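User: Here's a protein and a ligand (uridine-5'-diphosphate-glucuronic acid). What would the complex look like?
Assistant: Let me lay out the input and then the predicted complex.
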Amino acid sequence: MVSGTCFAEFGTDVAIVETNPDRLTALREGRIPIYEPGLDRLVEENVEAGRLTFGDDIAAAVKGADAVFVAVGTPSRRGDGQADTSYVYAAVEQIARVADGYTVIVTKSTVPVGTGREIARIIRKTRPDLDFDVASNPEFLREGNAIQDFMRPDRVIIGTDQYKPEGTERAQNILRKLYRPLYLLETPIVFTGLETAELIKYSANSFLAMKITFINEISDLCEKVGANVNDVARSIGLDGRIGKKFLHPSPGFGGSCFPKDTRALTAIGRNAGSPVRLIETTVAVNEQRMKDMGERVIAFAGGDVSGLTIGVLGLTFKPETDDMREAASIPVLDMLDKGGAKIRAFDPAGMTTARPVLPKSVTYCTDALDAAKGADILVVMTEWNEFRSLAPEKLAAEMKGRKIADLRNIWDPKAIKDAGFDYISLGRPDAVQPHQA
Ligand code: UGA
């Protein structure tokens, strides 16, 4: 959705194919099926300008196209954690059947190393007569910030078949043209081989996931020794070699990308006989962390939450999205529910998506203060901006108890404690007593 719409914004004619009838109807009626700030306006403008269309007819969309982007899902396969490429291969086969004239078939989906080459094989088998090239153009968009990330990227990666120099040049020229507006902004455009581009995507996401996991472990250590993780993160981040981004401690990284891509990279490494042990550990530490967070809340409650009312602020895996995939709130709320707590939850965008994945007994509230109503404990799961400005006195007026577990460090420990709360957060000595040896 975002890439297609942004290409249209660059002045390119884009036809988006959507096979889900409900989603297609919504799109044709101008309703955007995902929550992404700014996307609705951009879609509307480009549809009006006649550059962006939605349909379910692959042949019509592919006819005369210079490039066809495959952006279907590659979910984790159950059991081995590998990315499931069946949707990609199915899409490619359909594209090959209807392509007319030279076409570059580009993967936007995050696919295992070697997928581009397999795609080329499938196309050759399906349409031996077709003149085509395969390219890999991984996306680095963050949900909630995707348009900005597309329009002002740190870099664009374009991988083409390094063993086919003539095809490489033709494909590169088409993709270079597509990204010309970014070229003018002096965005680095890195041309690589197919396998390299595929591995860049997994390496980038896994490195960021590892960085988060590192600061999460340092955060735990801070609690034991009386250090402050915010100061540690800021100070190490000032070293340009480390960088200050993605050093916010959390109840664990979630979403549709980091958990899936870290698992996939470990599978790629194992299969290639070159295990990526740092990432294997990252996966394990992160999964354990989410469970630990549930236990932390239970311990904070005094070891037993049965019969307690727990207010929960934020459910999605991060703010500015309605995405609940692999959100830390899922295991945490599950533990609280199993422990017999009554849960009152509020999320500004994710309540519809949360319902099917959270315990049935959760009560969904109209706003943050409603979630705090009668609560013995309040737990912050996602750092939506609107929670930061909540006055502690207002929370106190709604709550029955005086305990806050802030798992995103959104509040100043002193201000919250001054308002009479018993407060824990992540890795900050003002909020947690140092461990007594
Ligand atoms: C991630 C990458 O950041 C994008 O560059 C990439 O394009 C995308 O995956 C993808 O592969 O499609 P996204 O999953 O939207 O983007 O979200 P992030 O902002 O990266 O956050 C992921 C998780 O890490 C969230 O649960 C967030 O709360 C957590 N996180 C992030 C932290 O716990 N601490 C941080 O400092 C930053």
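Summary: DSSP finds 19 helices and 13 strands in the chain.
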